[in-house]
Design goal:
The protein is of the alpha+beta class. It has 13 helices and six strands.
Amino acid sequence: MTASHVLHVPGSRYAAELGKEARAMKFPPDLEREYHAFYLAERRSHVRSFNVIMFVLVAFTLLVSVLSSREPGGVVQHVLVGSIAFAYAVLIWAAYSRYYESVYLKTASFVSALVALLAAMEIGYRISAGVGELFALLAAYSIGLYFLAGILYHAAVRANLVMVLAFVATLALLGVPPSKIAWLTAILAGTGAITGIAFRHQGTRFRRSFLERGLIAEMAARDGLTGLKNRRAFDEHLKRVWQQALNDRRPIVVMLCDVDEFKSFNDRHGHQAGDDALKRIAAVVDGFAQRPLDMAARYGGEELAVILFDMPRNLASLIAEKLRAAVQSLEIGRSDGDSIVTISIGVAIVRPTLERSPEGAVQLADEALYAAKQKGRNCVVMFEREHDTLATGAFQAPRAPRERALTR
């Protein structure tokens, strides 16, 4: 999927990031959090295996160190290795915890840097004592920080930097010859640098895969003609927002917008002109649903829908009227000497309760839209009555609703 194919998806965060020429290793905050969840889900099995294997190896090293009188460093050596083993025990807990998605990245970023520090010091002690065979493990751990530890690029770079600096400082403090320090440091830093470059390329591909998957899922939830969300996405979003409003005790506004006399316009000008008109109107409607919990959708045919979260009555009526006027100002049809295409809007203001339902909110908006059509079209009608007993698709009017018609 190339950038030229995704730039035409309106309002898509995924398309916006895919369209950027510079491939940053970090997204905007909301998208970055979503990427973290994706990344952790994909890497969970690797993370678990790596941490368990490292814990077993370190614990075995500690056991050998304690049992062997020939091991250098004595108590200091035992404390260092024991601390590393404890750190991996913490990571194993984070990897298997039910809080994995919320705690692992932060925990692993800190613990990985701590382990890098302790491991550099531990191997430094061994080298100063003439036991340098395990230096290869330090270089291997540098690689593991990037590809196996389950941390992000910048955290892996920091951990490797901590490792190199701690390694150099330990060797210098223990009197290792400068030439040997320089040689070993060059190997360790070179390993980290080469691996870091490879990991960055992998990270870029991984992030692009995340964006492409998200875009494909998003496009499946969009209407092919207008680019707005489709009916299914509208219904699912309304349920989520309804629950959020129920928890937060906030009102929801549902607007149903219907293009006036659209069939007649199609008959006179053809379906292509009708499609073009609908796309222009949809673009205007989409501009009125830009907050995170708002949504604009094609509800069906020439009917569009808008969900507005936590919107007071006076502001909802103002927005609905601005929307009606904005569509009228497009002057669709004037160039052909025809009457201007307009929309009628039915608005429902609902405060969710356990006795009410999202379907009832749509029903109320549908009744308001019907009333707007009855009033002569090109107007806004707002209903706010209780709708506990409303059933989707059945117009019930046991009592007169409170309403306000906003006309031209």
